[in-house]
């Protein structure tokens, strides 16, 4: 028997997948209409796709735009609220995995702890582990900063905190550039700190660049204009996205211009439209590629390759020195291996037993 398919724009889901979602709802004691079952099935498919193929967590807003662009739901405040209500319930019932989502608006700060918990290790083992660390060769711990001797200093600025989660993987791990979340209009203090960073870059002989990513709406455009006005004397401010051609190239869903925005009239006259577009509407992989391309254009590969040649030479010399040191450590390791019977020792729970008098 062939598989029955339900076509949702470029997203294909099977009747079997819809039935599986129905079964999960029924197990939770909830009955849903067919259109809701299709919606939640589409949500699961999109989230699983980004997690499996790209290891990207989406925000709720990004997921909404994915559903809009794939023709699953319409683009309207009513449709968004309906989608959000169904999604919230599906997450609460365990039908949609919470771990698929990114929430940058809220943080959890861990309390400060000692670097070494002495209830878990003896003094002898701690010293031995430190010596082993010093004499072990972890090549990935050593290197030259990626932008060393580069002619440019680059910062990526994004208007929305919600998008920083998956972008930070690219800016930090691959591109090695700062990611700055402006959250709309920045404070005087925030811009002063940015100016200081750009001035330090200029003092090092580098040309500072501020690459801006924001909404295509009255405020989003004005934010970049303000940054150029206030920081343009010290850095080259360049708006990378959203731009009008991105809207047409990727067929992005619009939202109405906020008439209450004091900059709305100027925006409408300039673009001859009453529609605006959010940066969230860009497919995540497209946004990542725009960030990657804009930064790589300012990166000198020849200089980077020269740095890598010196890095290989340095690591080879370091490895030779370690081999010499290891030959002289045999006697010291023997001393540390012979535990003093009066010293602290691990107890049966995996911690360290101490004389209780020490804690009085």
Describe it for me?
The chain has 360 residues and is of the alpha/beta class. The chain has helices spanning 15-27, 34-54, 60-69, 77-92, 123-135, 164-175, 188-203, 218-231, 244-249, 264-271, 284-296, 301-327, 330-337; strands at residues 5-8, 11-14, 152-158, 179-181, 207-213, 236-241, 255-256, 275-276, 345-346, 352-353. It folds into 3 domains: 5-100; 115-147 and 310-353, no CATH class; 152-250 and 278-299, Rossmann fold (3-Layer(aba) Sandwich). The protein contains 13 helices and 10 strands. The strands form 4 sheets. It has a 4-stranded parallel beta sheet. Residues 1-9 have low confidence and may be disordered.
Backbone CA Rg:
28 Å
Low-confidence stretches: 1-9
Going across the major beta sheet, what is the strand order?
4-3-5-6
How would you characterize the largest beta sheet? Answer: 4 strands, parallel
Shape: globular
Number of strands: 10
Describe the oligomeric state of these chains in a short phrase.
Answer: single chain
Strand content: 5-15%
Class based on secondary structure composition and strand pairing: alpha/beta
CATH architecture of the largest domain: 3-Layer(aba) Sandwich
Mean pLDDT: 86
Order of helices and strands: EEHHHHHEHEHEHEHEHEHHHEE
């Amino acid at each position: 028997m062939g598989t029955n398919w339900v076509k949702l724009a470029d997203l294909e889901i099977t009747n079997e997948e819809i039935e599986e979602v129905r079964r999960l709802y029924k197990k939770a004691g909830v009955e849903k209409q067919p259109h809701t079952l299709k919606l939640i099935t589409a949500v699961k498919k999109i989230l699983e796709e980004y997690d499996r193929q790209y290891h990207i967590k989406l925000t709720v807003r990004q997921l909404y735009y994915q559903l809009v662009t794939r023709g699953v739901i319409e683009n309207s405040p009513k449709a968004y609220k309906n989608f959000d209500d169904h999604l919230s319930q599906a997450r609460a019932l365990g039908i949609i995995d919470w771990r698929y989502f990114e929430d940058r608006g809220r943080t959890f700060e861990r309390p400060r702890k000692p670097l070494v918990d002495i209830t878990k290790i003896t003094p002898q083992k701690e010293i031995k582990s430190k010596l082993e660390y010093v004499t072990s060769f972890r090549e990935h711990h050593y290197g030259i900063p990626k932008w060393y001797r580069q002619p440019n200093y680059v910062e990526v600025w994004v208007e929305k905190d919600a998008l920083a989660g998956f972008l930070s993987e690219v800016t930090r791990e691959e591109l090695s550039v700062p990611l700055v979340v402006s959250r709309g209009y920045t404070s005087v203090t925030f811009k002063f700190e940015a100016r200081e960073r750009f001035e330090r870059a200029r003092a090092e002989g580098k040309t500072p660049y501020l690459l801006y990513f924001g909404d295509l709406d009255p405020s989003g455009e004005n934010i970049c204009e303000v940054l150029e006005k206030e920081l343009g004397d010290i850095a080259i401010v360049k708006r990378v996205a959203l731009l009008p051609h991105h809207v047409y190239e990727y067929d992005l869903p619009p939202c109405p211009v906020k008439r209450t925005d004091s900059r709305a009239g100027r925006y409408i006259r300039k673009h001859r439209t009453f529609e605006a577009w959010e940066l969230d509407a860009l497919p995540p992989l497209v946004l990542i590629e725009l960030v990657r391309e804009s930064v790589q254009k300012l990166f000198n590969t020849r200089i980077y390759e020269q740095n890598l040649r010196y890095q290989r030479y340095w690591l080879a010399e370091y490895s030779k020195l370690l081999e010499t040191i290891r030959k002289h450590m045999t006697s010291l390791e023997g001393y540390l291996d012979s535990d003093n019977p009066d010293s602290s020792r691990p107890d049966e729970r995996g911690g360290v037993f101490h004389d209780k008098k020490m804690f009085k």
